[in-house]
Amino acid sequence: MENKKTRTFQTETKKMLDIMIHSIYTHKEIFLRELISNSADALNKIRFESLSNEEIKLEDELEINIYLDKKNRTITIEDNGIGMSESEVIENIGTVAKSGSEKFVKALENKNDALEIIGQFGVGFYSSFMVANEVEIFTKRINDESVYWHSEGMDDYTIEQCDKEKNGTKIILHLREGEEFDELLDTYKIENLVKTHSNYISFPIKMDVEKQVPDEDSEDEYKMITVIEKKVLNSMIPIWRKAKNEITEEEYYEFYKNKFHEFTNPLEVIHTKVEGMVSYNAMLFIPSKPAFNFLMSNEKDGVDLYSKQIFIMKNVDNLLPEYLSFVKGIVDSPDFNLNISREVLQKDRLIKTIGKNLEKKILKALSSKLEKEREEYELWWSEFGIAIKNGIYQNPDKKDKLVDLLLFHSNKSGEKLVSLKEYVENMKDDQDKIYYVVTMDKERAMNLPQLEKIQDSDYEVLFFTDPVDEFMVNFLNEYDGKKLSSLNKSDESDNSEDTKEIKEENSDLLDALKENLDNKIDEIAISTKLKNTAVCLVTDSLGISLHTEELLKKMQDMPMNSKKILEINPNHEVFEKLKKEFEENGNSEMIKEYSEILLNQALIMEGLEIENPTKFANQISKLMTK
Ligand code: ADP
Predict the structure, then answer these.
(1) Fewer Cβ in 10 A, N or C end of the chain?
(2) Which tops the pLDDT comparison, 470 or 371?
(3) Residue 285 and residue 287: Cα distance in Å, rounded?
């Protein structure tokens, strides 16, 4: 044998191992499904490679074998898959660079509840150390040297050459001491675990099981003896090939949770079979809880591609549009070419056709949820609504298909949400617009001065609290022929003759106020929105709201500057006072100071920072003691 090398685990790996070893996680048995799933991947890979590489001849049946050894307390999982070369072992097993494990460590950095996270991820191979204190791997890649890896899950592992004859991987777990581990040496227990977690793996998972058979050598026809027989433990029929009425809800959920390492049941399962010009089988899941990297990374689970049950590709990104990337599942079509590359798929017409059909089905499922199970939909919406809004923003041509899925909080909806359709149904006879206000949250929205007057008319106002809302609304513009109108913006069309008159009469005062606030505002206007409050700050109808402007500034992402308009309430006593002072003393010191105070009030009400809070406080104190 070649020289033995000892290597230290990378820091992240150590962190992970430490959690695995010391966790009191109750689902320790997931290690089995993880190892089986790795083996199944390895079998898929060799089958796939054999299609294009003549050197690879698959003589034996592709299979996974489990061996239990009670005496030595070991569980062995062996496959005749692709195997690993020495460098692959080092790269894949000794480091946390691979998908599942990397996600896991990242999530750990953000959250400290390791136990909760373990279940959510396919942490793969490392989960072995939850049940074993020593792990051995014998592996051989085709036409390569075989490799032996050994570790006790502490700081390091050893690696050396060995003499495994056939390609594939054999993993031996030396179980920890303790009753909870003893049961893992029981054939029934293992058979059950395979049935619940790995039933649909498309390769046979075999194990020696004891069986009672009549003893043919005995004269007593009832005498039974125990024989050992190799048994295939899993059904092997992929769930999506079964007819709908043969699958229970539980089975769907179990498949979903296992395949996508999910914790919670999905919101909806879409299982469809199409035959004709294009033929395919699809099983899609709309999750009920977002993945930790929802909306962030490209490296997430999506829809996997199969052809006649043979796995082709993970997460085909151009099947479903970007905004539906939270949907998980599989599509199996005999028409897919096994050797297809991602690049070719980009343009594949078949993929496009299937994708379109599936998108339709997903949207239909969502709208039926909205209609029939409103509460559940609202919960779902609170997590995933942003994806649908992004859908409108990213594909304005799809707005008609998506707009009825939107829900918003409003001044009338309380804890519930309202759809645009419901909004329009509830509109007052004299109301011709759909009103909304962009703000940080519902609580702040309720207190905005712009709502005062409109509330008096008993109009409903939608609250736009997601950053994407305001961008989305630019593409919506109207719904059911009713214009969407923002209370964060000045709206010339609201101006009545009365307002114009007040504006003309007080043009000198207004000019003076604007001059006093030069650089800070772009315009001063007579407000039609206010009732009890003296001022509010809005932007012009072309720009974005102050709230969104502030958000963009914080993100340092293309800061935008909207035109700022200070609206003043002509029916407020403050306005009367300003008028009087201006008539008597022109643009006096007092008017200058009041201008500043009014602007700062407006800023505070919008939740924005003011330039000099101490000065503002002192000005107020002075007024109080006058
Ligand atoms: P994941 O499966 O999420 O990638 P694992 O830690 O389980 O993470 O496995 C890491 C990598 O090790 C796999 O991606 C694969 O490349 C390799 N590997 C694990 N088990 C096997 C196996 N039985 N045969 C071949 N390669 C394997």
Answers:
(1) C
(2) 371
(3) 6
Q: What is the mean pLDDT of residues 355-376?
A: 97
Residue 223 near residue 215, CB atoms below 8 Å = yes
Quote the tokens at residue 449.
Answer: 């001065």
Q: Say if residues 312 and 305 touch (Cβ distance below 8 Å).
A: yes
User: DSSP characters for 522-591?
Assistant: SEEEE-SS-SS-SEEEEE-TTS--HHHHHHHHHHTSS---PPEEEEE-TTSHHHHHHHHHHHHHSS-HHH
Helix 573-585, helix 507-516: angle, nearest 10: 90
Q: Output the residue whose Cα is nearest ligand 1's atom 19.
A: 38
* Total H helices, total E strands in the chain: 23, 22
Return d(Cα 13, Cα 18) in angstroms, integer.
8
Residue whose C-alpha is closest to residue 93's, from 171, 165, 161, 24:
171
What pLDDT, on the 0 to 100 scale, is given for residue 116? 54
Domains of the chain from N-terminus onward: 5-232 (3.30.565.10), 239-379 (3.30.230.80), 408-487 (3.40.50.11260), 496-626 (1.20.120.790)
Residue located nearest, by CA, to atom 13 of ligand 1: 92
Per-residue pLDDT for 317 more than 80?
Answer: no
User: What's the whole-model pTM score?
Assistant: 0.70
> Distance between CA atoms of 177 and 449, rounded to whole angstroms?
68
Distance (Å, whole) CA 48 – CA 38: 15
**What is the DSSP track for 29-65?**
THHHHHHHHHHHHHHHHHHHHHHH-TT----SPP-EE
Q: Which residue do the tokens 């609201």 mark?
A: 494
Q: Helix or strand or coil: residue 307?
A: strand
* 43, 125, 146: residue to mutate for ligand 1 pocket, most atoms within 8 A of CB: 125
Q: Which residues pair with 313 in a beta bridge?
A: 305
Please check the confidence at residue 1 and state whether its pLDDT lies above 50. Answer: no
Length of the chain: 626
Mean pLDDT of the chain: 88
Residues 502-536: tens digit of each pLDDT:
999 999 999 999 999 988 999 999 998 899 999 99
Q: From atom 15 of ligand 1, which residue's Cα is the shortest distance away?
A: 92
Substitution site in 35, 79, 98, 136 for ligand 1 pocket (most atoms within 8 Å of beta carbon): 98
Give whole-number Cα distances, 267 to 285, 286, 360, 384, in Å: 7, 6, 17, 11
